[in-house]
Structure formats: C-alpha cells, structure tokens
Amino acid sequence: MRSLHGRRDMYAESPALSASVLVLNRMYMAVRVVNARRAMSFLYRDMAEVVAVEDDQFLSYDFNDWVEVSEAKREFEPEQHDWIRTIRFQIAVPKIVRLLGYDKLPKSNVKLNRRNVFARDQNSCQYCGKRFPTSELSLDHVLPRSQGGGISWENIVCACVTCNVRKGGRTPAQANMHLIRPARRPKRSPVLTIKLSDAKYASWKQFLDFAYWNVELK
Predict the structure, then answer these.
(1) For the chain, what is the domain count?
(2) Rounded to whole angstroms, how far apart are CA atoms 178 and 128?
(3) What share of the chain is helix, strand, coil (3-state, %, to 5)?
(4) Of 140, 101, 95, nearest in space to 121 by CA
C-alpha cells in the first residue's frame, strides 16, 4: 500500500477535489457520494478502483491505469471531466469508484434535514410557487405544532417569509391557502436527484435502483 503523504500536497489546492464521486460497494451497489479528495484517497491507497461506463460496458482501473487513461481523456474529451493537476501529471476526477473490501448495503432512509427539504422542494415556496435563495426560505409545518403537527417529511415544506407569516399558526385550509404539491417522503436523496439532472453524472444512473436504494451524501 502506498503512502498518500506528499501526493496529497501535490494537489491539495485543486478546486476539482470538491467534485462529487459516486461510491459503490464491492457488489456494485451505490452506497454514498463523497468528494473527489476522499475518492482519490481510496483509489491511491488501493482501497478502490475506478469504474467507467463506456459504450454500455463497465471498465475498471486501478490508480496507475487511471493515470494513463486520463492522458487519453485529456487529449480527446477534456471538457467532460474535472481535472486534478499535480507536479508530474494531470488526472481526471473519476465519476464512480468501487470499494474493493466493502460489502455493506446502502442505507435506505433519506435524512430529514433542512438541505434535503430545500432540495426536494427545489427552493420553491410551496404556497406561492416562487423560487428563492435558501437564505430567504423557511420551513413551515403544514399542520402547525400548536395543533398537533409533528416533524415529518409529510408535514414540512419550504415557505417564503411572506407566505409563512400569512399562514401563521393555521392550517392551509384555515388560512385559505393551498399547497402546490403534497409533501411526501422522497424515495431517494433529493440532492442526488439534482445531481442526476446534470449530464456530467449520467453514468451514475447505471448503478441506482430508485425503487430500493438511496445514496447518503457525506
């Protein structure tokens, strides 16, 4: 196993290290999304291999092989990748890596947190339908807590300040307001859904079974 010390120093400041990488377990099941820095650490320490989807085939590469493949990709398709530049070479950030010694199954529950609610509702107020920056949105209890409403996916929605104040401690019906869409528990991470809308992450779809598995973002 090679030491990562020194290699990390070569590309410590590269902005590409914040790019997202899908992580598979040994059985090719998606388990989480990590940043490129962590994925490259797995790869360099021989804990993982790159999985590339090319012409409907899955190809696997270790670190040294991926460095060589990156040379060809830099010549023929540089715009399709994020690039980490070291002193000696440039390496493409892999879209997918597979952990060679990890057999655990992915978690099936999507965390109920502020980031996922905003992503599920696409930063839109669920009463007026307008999109807002995250800083201008709040979370509203559809059935107010004063009336027994709890914290659940089905009872929390994004609301702009104006609509939230207008609704107050009432239900939508009591305030003569209507939800644009029912609040539902998402089947997969809402943030992941946003990622999948980006052509750069199209290869992820090959490994995501939407009916059963979710990816936990770390």
Answers:
(1) 2
(2) 9
(3) 35, 20, 45
(4) 140
User: 49 pairs with which residues across the strands?
Assistant: 98
Residue found by looking up tokens 């995250």 in the block: 134
Residues 6+ apart with CB under 8 A from 116: 110, 186, 189, 190, 191
What pLDDT digit, counting tens, does each position of 147-206 carry?
A: 999 999 999 999 999 999 999 999 999 999 999 999 998 877 777 777 877 888 888 877
Range of the domain at 12: 7-107+190-217
Q: What is the pTM of this model?
A: 0.61
Residues 15, 101, single domain; the answer is yes
- Would 180 be classed as within a structural domain? no
Percent of the chain with pLDDT over 90: 50
- The tokens describing 39, both together, are 């994925």
